[in-house]
Every structure is written in C-alpha cells, then in structure tokens.
Design a protein that fits this description.
The chain contains 9 helices and 23 strands. It has about 375 residues and is an alpha/beta fold. The mean pLDDT is about 95. Bound molecules: flavin-adenine dinucleotide (FAD).
C-alpha cells in the first residue's frame, strides 16, 4: 500500500497472529472479503513463540463454558489438521500421541484424579497411571512422581507452521494478508467504525476486529474505553536430541517438555507477570531447565538448540475476550488468550465469524467471554 492509498474490504482484522488469521480464515471461507493487517510479519508475536500444545483437558481444572470452548476448539483443530494440508500444501506438525500430566505430590495426584472423573463423566477420554504404571511407560522419569493423568486426545502442533498455513488458507480463499502495515487508529462515522488508518493509507471496512494481543487497548482508548491487560512473558528453549528421546508431551507444575515433528524438544515455560520485552533472561532458562531436568534427569545431557520468549496477553481472570464492543457498531475484539491461544484459535475464528455475520454459535455458551466483562468506560478520548 502506498502512503495515500485507500482500499475497501468488508472486514479488517488488525493483527496477524494465530487469532487474527483464524478469524480471517473463517470469514474468508464464508466468502467475506477480508484483510489481515499485521504491523511486522505474521506470527512474530506470541503465536510464533508458542509450544503448540492443544491441552484442553490437561490444562483445565474445572468444568464450565471455558472447558467447553477449549474442547470444541480441539475438535476443530483435528478437522483443520486434516483439511489445511490439502488446502495449503503444507503440514502443521500435528501429532496425536497425547499428553501426560505428571503429579508431583499426593495432593496433585488426588486433584488430577478428580479432574479425570468429571471429564470422563462428560464423555472425554483419559486414564490414571499410578507411579509404577507411569514408570513402566517412562523409565527416564525420576522416582519423585506420584502418577500421571494421561489424555490421549490432547494433541499438539507446530505453531509457526500453523500460522503460515492459516495465512495461505486466507489468501487461498480470496483474503488479503498485509505485512509491515501498522494500524495507527480506527476510523469512525458517528457511533460506527468505518475502517482503519495504517502507516500506508486507509482501509475502509464495515467491520473491524482488533486481534493485536497486548496492543488492543491502545486502539480502544480514543473511543473512551479502557481494557486492562497484563503482559506475561514466557521463556522457553529447544533441545535437539541426536536420537528420538520422548514420544509424548510431559506436562508438570511449572514445566513441560514437548517433542516436535522436526526433532526438537521444547522445554518450557516461565510465566513472568508484567514482563513485556522479548529478552531471554538467563535466570528464566535456568528455572525451566532445572524444573524439567529434575523430573527427567536425562534431559540434562541433551544438546542445547535455541531459546526465545514471547509475550502472552492476560486478563484479570485469565479468560479470553471475544465479541463486539458495546456502543460502537462494527467493532469487535479478540484478545486475552493467555496461555491457550493456539488451542483456542479455531473456535475464536468460528465464534467471531458468527458475531460478524449475526449467526449465534449452535452449541457453546460464549457470553462469559464478551468484552463487557472487562471493558471499562471513561478513559480519556
Ligand atoms: C512461550 C509461550 C508458549 C506458549 N505455548 C502455548 C501452547 O502450547 N498452547 C497454546 O494454546 N498457547 C500457547 N501459548 C499462548 C499463545 O501463544 C497465545 O495465546 C497466542 O499466540 C495469542 O495469539 P494472538 O494472535 O492473540 O497474539 P499474537 O500472536 O501476539 O499476535 C498479535 C499480532 O498483532 C500484531 N499487532 C499488534 N498491534 C498491531 C497494530 N497496531 N497494527 C498491526 N498489527 C498489530 C502483532 O505484531 C502480532 O503479530 C504460548 C505462549 C508463549 C509466549
């Protein structure tokens, strides 16, 4: 786009992370003219840093609409993993081996068994492995384990590959993905949003979706809205075993180890609240490697490959924000996906496409994720 250019689409999505791209895809497959506008390159935010676990059951402590949202998204990923490779000519590194949630105390073992019980009651799979059964499957684990919840249906993928596949899918369905296009502000006519002002010019649209992670509040502020979000840095590293080392993901308290399709083992992750720069503190690396290395001592002998960090976006209740902005026609928000944004991308795309096209989701209760839960009015405009 040249500086003074003006283009027109039906929907503009601000932010080329996995959330923005999934929303754009679900609109594009329905024939909506959509443009994703990304300030740098797609996937350079949290999405490109993620470990790619689709841990709907393993990560959820209680039943409710958030659990339902996650398992629905996991179901959609399974579908997308089958269709996106044909659509885009690329694999997602999708792996179906399941995830172990390791118990590191008796109390944790009890809690995980309770979790398994309510999840099984709802019809989801899983098994409890006591210490002996677990050690028989994973002899490399230390003796200080109290069993594990094994969830066969919690899968994983390569987040960076998924981002690129979604970009191709959007473009393949007639959408646009503009990179290097920083959105400076929203355009309005009365109470209606009419597009966005980018560094390269104006994009007119009848709907705008703000999916820029931590930057969403900046674009809402001139409208008089405050959206309190917290940056939570995650530091991870990759090891590169010479021979296959681990088949399934291990997930513990404050650590995980997940084997990727390209041979790397990703070890994560810190949760550094308030940290909003993407540096890799040595202390953070030491912490995750010590935690994981204590549980899986052989890990300490593996060759180091690389380390990086990403900024998760968290709301106060750690639930995502998905839906229309009250009082501003045509404006929608999708942010706050914290540590589950890769998992939640398909369902967020589906729910948001429904809001924009006035179609209610047929099964899910998505009201708990509406923006009014967290939006505060009265910010300086
Ligand atoms: C270390 C780590 C590990 C993780 N592991 C997992 C995991 O295993 N499973 C899981 O489900 N989730 C995981 N997550 C969480 C997941 O990565 C995030 O929830 C998800 O990526 C959020 O996606 P997003 O599209 O909202 O944000 P982002 O990926 O941050 O994308 C937002 C995009 O908006 C762009 N943008 C911002 N402002 C503007 C503007 N004004 N104009 C144009 N563009 C703009 C940014 O450049 C950015 O590309 C992990 C996160 C981290 C950090």
């Amino acid at each position: 786009m040249a500086n003074s250019e003006r283009v027109s689409v039906e929907v503009v999505v601000v932010g080329g992370g996995i959330i923005g791209l999934s929303i754009a895809r679900q609109l594009a497959v329905r024939g909506v003219q959509v443009a994703v506008v990304e300030q740098t390159r797609i996937g350079t935010g949290a999405s490109g840093a993620a470990a790619g676990m689709l841990a709907a059951q393993v990560e959820t402590e209680e039943d409710g609409p958030f659990f339902d949202l996650q398992v629905e998204s996991r179901r959609l990923w399974r579908k997308w993993a089958a269709t996106l490779p044909d659509e885009t000519g690329m694999q997602l590194g999708y792996r179906e081996e399941g995830i172990y949630r390791i118990a590191e105390s008796e109390q944790e073992a009890r809690q995980l068994q309770e979790r398994l019980a309510w999840q099984q009651k709802k019809g989801f799979g899983g098994a409890w492995l006591d210490r002996q059964a677990l050690k028989a499957q994973l002899p490399g684990l230390c003796d200080d384990v109290y069993g594990a919840l094994y969830v066969p249906d919690d899968h994983q993928l390569d987040a960076a590959l998924a981002v690129e596949a979604l970009r191709r899918s959007v473009v393949g369905h007639g959408g646009n993905v503009l990179e290097g296009a920083h959105v400076l502000g929203l355009l309005q006519n009365g109470s209606r949003v009419t597009g966005v002002q980018t560094v390269g010019g104006i994009i007119s649209a009848s709907a705008v979706v703000l999916a820029g992670g931590m930057s969403v509040p900046l674009l809402l502020r001139p409208l008089g809205y405050r959206l309190p979000l917290m940056p939570i840095r995650g530091t991870v590293c990759a090891l590169y075993p010479h021979a296959p080392f681990l088949k399934r993901t291990l997930f513990g308290t404050g650590w995980y180890v997940t084997p990727k399709s390209d041979g790397r083992l990703i070890v994560g992750a810190t949760q550094e609240e308030g940290a909003n720069t993407r540096e890799v503190p040595v202390g953070a690396l030491v912490t995750i490697l010590q935690r994981a290395g204590k549980m899986l001592p052989e890990l300490q002998r593996l060759p180091f490959h690389s380390a990086w960090s990403g900024i998760r976006t968290g709301t106060a209740d750690r639930l995502p924000v998905i839906g229309p902005v009250p009082g501003v026609d045509g404006l929608f928000v999708a942010t706050g996906h914290f540590r589950n944004g890769i998992l939640l991308a398909p369902v967020t795309g589906e729910v948001m496409a429904g809001y924009i096209l006035n179609e209610a989701h047929p099964t899910l209760d998505v009201r708990p994720f509406l923006p009014e839960r967290v939006l505060e009015s009265g910010a300086e405009s």
